[in-house]
Amino acid sequence: MANRILVSVDENTACPEWLNLIEGFVDNVLKELEYDDEEISIMFCDDKCIQELNSTYRKIDSATDVLSFENGLEYTDEEGNKWFSAGDIAISLDMLKQNAQYFEVSENEELKRLLIHGVLHLNGYDHGEEHVEKGVEPECEMLKIQKRLMEKFSDIILIAGK
């Protein structure tokens, strides 16, 4: 079968022009990781929205760049197809811009990193206390896989000219 990627924008956030490219990119990431029949929901929002999510679900009252909420349930749809509901990803477009400046990368590169990061979390990967740091090589498996995928998809353009 295939993967099902549901992409949305929070009602208080302007819809980015590149939104229609997200589904194909995430599907390619899942295929590269050899995941099939997964359902993932991705919501783009602003700092206020992601801060509320972070406060509600992680008890951290601050904005963050990406949140992943694992589901892990399997279900059968009305056509008889079995799906693995991996979970939901929320990405702050405000933090995406800030991260791109901090890491001195394009918004395009940062968007791909956040999507890959979220997908890995939904599939059981964790980086513990280690985080991506400018100029520091990753040590944990998750961040090494993330780096490999970033290199694999380095030529993909989601946000043109940024």
Provide tags for this entry.
162 residues, 4 strands, 22% strand
Summarize the helices and strands and which ones pair or pack.
Layout (H helix, E strand, L loop, with lengths): L3 E6 L12 H11 L5 E8 L1 H12 L7 E11 L5 E11 H11 L3 H16 L18 H12 L10
Parallel strand pairs: 1-2, 2-4
Antiparallel strand pairs: 3-4
Describe the structure in your own words.
The protein has 162 residues and is of the alpha/beta class. It has helices at residues 22-32, 47-58, 93-103, 107-122, 141-152, and strands at 4-9, 38-45, 66-76, 82-92. It has a 4-stranded mixed sheet with strand order 1-2-4-3, sandwiched between helices. The termini are far apart. The chain is 38% helix and 22% strand. Helix 1 (22-32) crosses helix 4. The protein has 5 helices and 4 strands, in the order E-H-E-H-E-E-H-H-H.
Kindly report the average pLDDT value.
Answer: 92
Strand content: 15-25%
Given as residue ranges, the uncertain stretches (5+ residues, pLDDT < 50) are: none
Helix content: 25-40%
General shape: globular
- Helix and strand content put the structural class at alpha/beta
Order of helices and strands: EHEHEEHHH
The major pleated sheet works out as:
4 strands, mixed
N-to-C CA distance: 34 Å
The tally of strands reads 4
DSSP summary: helix tally: 5
| Biggest sheet strand line-up | 1-2-4-3
Give Rg in angstroms.
15 Å
